[in-house]
Design brief:
The chain has 522 residues and is of the alpha+beta class. It has a domain at 18-292: ATPase, nucleotide binding domain (Nucleotidyltransferase, domain 5), CATH 3.30.420.40. Strands 1, 2, 3, 6, 12, 13 and 14 form a seven-stranded mixed β-sheet that branches. The chain has a seven-stranded mixed β-sheet with strand order 17-18-16-15-22-23-24, sandwiched between helices. α5 packs across α7 (182-192), α14 (290-297) crosses α19 (478-489) and α16 crosses α17. Bound molecules: adenosine-5'-diphosphate (ADP) and 5-O-phosphono-D-xylulose. Adenosine-5'-diphosphate binds next to α15.
Amino acid sequence: MAAAQVSPPPPPPPPPPLYLGFDFSTQQLKVLVIDGNLNVLHQDNVQFDSELSDFRTQGGVHIHSDRLTVTSPVLMWVKALDLLLDKMKRAGFDFSRVRALSGSGQQHGSVYWKRGASETLNQLSPDQDLFQQLQVCVFSVSDSPVWMDSSSSQQCLDLQAAVGGALRLAEITGSRAYERFTGNQICKLRQTRPDAYQDTERISLVSSFAASLFLGDYAAIDYSDGSGMNLLDIRTRSWSEVCLKATAPHLDQLLGAPLPSTSVLGPVSSYFVHRYGFSETCRVVAFTGDNPASLAGMRLQQGDIAVSLGTSDTVFLWIQQPRPALEGHVFCNPVDWQAYMALLCFKNGSLTRERIRNECAGGSWEVFSAALRNTPLGNNGNIGFYFDTMEITPPAVGVYRFDGDDNEVSSLSSQVEVRALVEGQFLSRRLHAESLGYSIIPGTRVLATGGASCNTEILQVLSDVFNAPVYTIDLSNSACLGAAYRALHGGREASRCSSHPRLQTWRVFSVRVCVCFYTTDT
Ligand SMILES: Nc1ncnc2c1ncn2[C@@H]1O[C@H](COP(=O)(O)OP(=O)(O)O)[C@@H](O)[C@H]1O
Ligand SMILES: O=C(CO)[C@@H](O)[C@H](O)COP(=O)(O)O
């Protein structure tokens, strides 16, 4: 008699796919993992100063002796990626489940690939880490200029003169000439280091540099981060001939063609497949700037104002039509290619708060927060404006303190100084936003993110000064989250859908008392 046929049990379903978002920001490299239901499953980071101390950065950068030039070692970013992926591997992370990855980078910074570098990128051996293979002969400039740099004033003046003035430049590129914007940095490099420039075969932004590592090939610059270069025509979304010509000959060949921020660039390079076990089908979605990625991560809606408290403080919002001005920036929108985002950037943000914390609160955020709790809203009229380094908005430097009678004073008591700083910072964010026409009206939501947004006392001051409720989500690195969302949606419009579950997790800080606003010219 024939034995009864027992069919084997069905194979277990494959584990659900995952999506990675990276953020190459000023002080650290971060990663965040989500599943297809947008649940955050894992987060990790590498701090540049402490975990890569051989590079001797402070706050992720080197400030040069002229106090204007600010750079970061490009190999530090490469080594940070080795370290982060090794940490994840050691923690047992299953890279084979990653269906797509994307990322963001601090805006405006530039990376210069040496002639022949693309071959090295194409032929990476999985037996060695990226740092070992990229440390020689791959970068023509080892110290990348970053967003904190303000050493290209002459190049800014020249560019504005060449295109017909500051407002004309703003009409084309979304911004008047700014020192940190990449085109002016490229122009300065060409003039001051012609040999290094001649030896360059490709120029990337920090975001497209990071995407290139994953792709094993040069990644395109996306429209949104490309808007921070003073080179892209934000309406035609192509390089502006007049700006290119004024910056460097044949620059378009060094930059490659820009692409929509939602582009899928291709599969991850075989290096990552063999070294970490990524699937060959894992896709790399275009990387973008950290502020554009935050806009995606915070799911900004029309009328919302986002305040990012990272290394820089930024204020940004989603806009439908560009209205470039002499202050602030208009970038192409990273989520909806027909829309735009407006942004103001303040250089003296977290690092200035850290200085005052060190001087007035013994280096403790807890003591700093207690000072905010123990001082009254409005600070009895005491106020301060702290521009430790040349500010971007407004272009000013120095520390200015005023007492309740509006007299300039040289010092304030510790607790009063803490409140004077934070109120002064947020007052400036509000005044500059309003002077550009961003209205804070009943119903406006202020959405806070970035490292300092974990501090509830700071958020309370933000709410009081903006006279509006401030919302946060339960994690402060919205750039990473936005990058993971962008990976998940793989360039699809769906990333704009408003019925997002994370909206349920916003926490609100409400206005305590209607603030009596200061009158000041700053
Ligand atoms: N508890 C806190 N209170 C205020 N600020 C904080 C707190 N924790 C971290 N920060 C600030 O967050 C900053 C880093 O923010 P983050 O968004 O991670 O920066 P970036 O993305 O630019 O590297 C630090 O410089 C620090 O001053
Ligand atoms: O220059 C700008 C925006 O224009 C900065 O916001 C940089 O993008 C750096 O971002 P963080 O590291 O401070 O988040």
